[in-house]
Amino acid sequence: MINLLIIDDEIEIGNFLSRLFTAKGYRVQVVNSGKEFFSINFSLQKFHAAMIDLKLPDVDGLTLLQQLKKFQPRCKAIIMTGYSTIKTAVEAIKFGASDYIEKPFDDIDLLEKQIDSLLEDNDKTAHETIKSIAHEIGFITGKSEKMEQLLKTAYKVAQKNVNVLIEGETGTGKEVLSRFIHHASPRSQESFIGVNCGAIPESLLESELFGHEKGAFTGATQQRKGLFSIASQGTLFLDEIAEASRSIQVKLLRVLETREFMPVGSDKIFRTNTRLIAATNEDLQEAVKNKKFREDLYYRLNVVHLTIPPLRERKEDIPYLIEHLLQRFPNSNITFSDDALAYLQRYDWPGNIRELANFVTRVVALTDSNQAVITPGDLPISYFAISSHPNIGRTISKKSEESELESYLHRWTNQVLTVFNQKEEISLEEILDQVKDLEAYVGKAFIMKTLKDVEGNRKEAAKRLQITMRKLRYLLNEK
């Protein structure tokens, strides 16, 4: 017989759940406080599942969850929560909860289905489903525990109709994670549409999001639907949300609060059922403090908060990522030696997966043979000699950095002088290309050194080098 533990301070709810699941043949025990929970002799009583309310008068549900997992690690747990505490419920998943459900229980059939599913031995099935969806959309996680936990949480969140905020450095794969959430959700057969809020001028972004009427502005020659209409039953991904203007933020807030919007130039109100996922490489909490981002909009977006770790914190995944990236070139049989992969795992990859993808593309393009094994000697010096992140265990000394730069400049100079002194015909275009390579290498070397000095703070590095962030990303091959 299934033993079910229910922890809720509302006696009516406890009695209701007890009757519901007793009728299904479960043995149910109800406790109404943390004190009653700690009076249970867990060495004698074994539970298959537990339903835990997040808010109790004498203790919070997260504490009870952790204690339950300590007493009985195999006991499945589902968190009961109100809308205002969904963010905490998602945190509970990270502490070992299998799922969460919102109160009040509007759909009893759904509640029963969740508990029945919880009691099935479906961990393996869920794991296989997660891997299958990730593989389908090209979201490679490798063996990183951080990424595995992130995907588990994202998979659980995908089933709920809540907004998600994804934070992470440039190039970490925020849009790919948002696609994973969409494909793992009940909306997977509907539209997924993404837009970069920082790449479109404010006047055009409003029209892009909400649509416009014919004649609403110069150039509006016909009526156009906005993304909130097109993706009404699907998912809308707003990348670089921190770049949205205050005016756009106000309009987004209204949509999130009322599910209503008005196209530009229209006096009609339209409704949308879009699921919103927003992403940023900035610290939105800091942006709120600096009055750059609306606090009320931040809390509306930040119902569920997911953070993608940078590549330097998951270097064990680099070989898997490279293997996946090489599959983009079906006519090539290029591989990397173990030594080459070891060197690449020493590098910090400040541009993250995007920089790694650019690097693999460059290697394939410059390799003469379609069947080659890339060794350390084939790698650009910068990818294993210059390291910037303060936490890396194999940080290269300033003297070594100077030595590598000096070595590169010496080789480059000798090559150019050799060509300059030869009496045969030369290709000036090739020489000028080498000059561009020199410029890129030296620029990147200075950036990496400065990033190391400022402990990876890109804004501070750009300020010290007197260049824009756009220029910094360009020189790091994050175009």
Automatic annotation (TrEMBL):
One of its GO terms (molecular function) is ATP binding. Residues 421-471 form a coiled coil. One of its GO terms (biological process) is regulation of DNA-templated transcription. Residues 3-118 form the Response regulatory domain. Gene3D superfamilies: 1.10.8.60, 3.40.50.2300, Homeodomain-like (1.10.10.60), P-loop containing nucleotide triphosphate hydrolases (3.40.50.300). It comes from the Bacteria. PANTHER family: SIGMA L-DEPENDENT TRANSCRIPTIONAL REGULATOR YPLP-RELATED (PTHR32071:SF119), TRANSCRIPTIONAL REGULATORY PROTEIN (PTHR32071). This is Sigma-54 factor interaction domain-containing protein. The keyword Coiled coil applies. It comes from Caldibacillus thermoamylovorans. The modification 4-aspartylphosphate is found at residue 53. PROSITE patterns: RESPONSE_REGULATORY (PS50110), SIGMA54_INTERACT_1 (PS00675), SIGMA54_INTERACT_3 (PS00688), SIGMA54_INTERACT_4 (PS50045). Keywords: ATP-binding, Coiled coil, Nucleotide-binding, Phosphoprotein, Transcription, Transcription regulation. Residues 140-365 form the Sigma-54 factor interaction domain.
